Every structure is written in C-alpha cells, then in structure tokens.
Amino acid sequence: MIQPYDTATNPMNTIEWLFAAMECTHIASLALSIGTIAIVDMSLLGSGIRGRSPAQLLRATEIWTLAGLTLVITAGLALFSSDPLRYYYSPTFRIKMWLLLTGIVFNYTIHRKVARSGTSPIVSKAVGAISLAIWIGVIFCGLFFAFTAGGY
Q1: Taking Cα atoms as reference points, which of 145, 118, 119, 134 lies closest to residue 37?
Q2: How far apart are CA 100 and CA 109, in angstroms?
Q3: 20-26: long-range pairs with CB below 8 Å, 24+
Q4: Cα–Cα distance for residue pair 62/4, rounded to 1 Å
Q5: Can you give the residue ranges of every domain in the chain?
Q6: What is the pLDDT of residues 50-104, one digit of tens each?
C-alpha cells in the first residue's frame, strides 16, 4: 500500500535554514539562466551588446545558461519536495512548469538554430521576442505562485 507523503520528515521542512537557502539558489540560478538567454534575445532583437553577433553571444553564454538551468531545476525539485500537493494543485505552478519546458525546448532548438544561422531580421526578432515572452512568463508565474499559494 502506498503511504501518504510525510512532509514532516523532509529536511526542507525540518532544517530551519534549508528552504531559504534553496529559494535563494533557485532565484539566483533563474536570474543566471534567463539573463544569459536574454543577452542573446536582445541581440536577436537588434539591441543589447554591440559588435558581437547572436552566434558569438550564444557561444559565450551557453555554459552559463546550462549551469543556471541545471541549478534552477535542482533547487526547484528540492523546493517542490517540501509540499508536493501544494505545488501540484496550483494552476499557476503547472503553467510555470509548461512554460519552463517550452522555454527549454525552444532555447535548445529554434532559438539556438536562429542565433547560429544569422537568418533574416524578421525571423530573428520574432524568435527573440517569443523567447523573452516565454521566460518572462516563467518569472511571473513563479512570482504569482509565491505570493498567492497559501493552500490548495
């Protein structure tokens, strides 16, 4: 028989500082990953760092993007473990997860291909705008969840 999840034995709930440390790690790594993606997006949009192509910026930031995404997901899973039902039953959290998945897939497929290939300005701007919109959605859903998710 499956036992219900006992949040009282989870270190995230029993070690006083651990949840706060994971939250700080989550936010900092989110800023790192989305910030590095936004650098490339701004270049695709025709603004941002001058004198470097989107392909050059992508190469310069890709390891930081991957490190940030790895940390944000790891810290996010730890936070999720603190109260899985609260997260599961939140529509905002579920939207955030879909946007995160969409953003990661978009970043490592279309976004990367367009940044590397130097396509037309219209395509580049559209891809940069779509990418920014997805990642801004992830941020807003995270903030909305944090300030409104008091219960199921």
Answers
A1: 134
A2: 14
A3: 22/75, 22/78, 22/79, 23/75, 23/79, 25/71, 25/75, 26/71, 26/72, 26/75, 26/76, 26/79
A4: 40
A5: 9-148
A6: 899 999 999 999 999 999 999 999 999 999 999 898 899 999 999 999 999 999 9
